[in-house]
Specification:
Length: 64
């Protein structure tokens, strides 16, 4: 796979940076995911930054 598509350094960096997101960005994530329920398909899940923000009404996430 191309290094532009599979870059372990970037994945680690993104995880660290996501932990330091501002409350405004976290609020946007919650707002974007609000209203979802049941089984959800997340395309481009990356490192899974959105997973913590799914509402309780989501019962399953299929991440690609």
């Amino acid at each position: 796979m191309s290094s532009t598509l599979d870059n372990p350094f970037f994945a680690r960096l993104w995880t660290v940076m996501a932990a330091h997101e501002t409350e405004a960005i976290r609020r946007l994530r919650r707002e974007n995911l609000a209203g979802l329920s049941g089984r959800v398909l997340e395309v481009g899940a990356g490192t899974g930054t959105n997973f913590a923000f799914y509402p309780d009404t989501v019962t399953e996430v299929v991440a690609v």
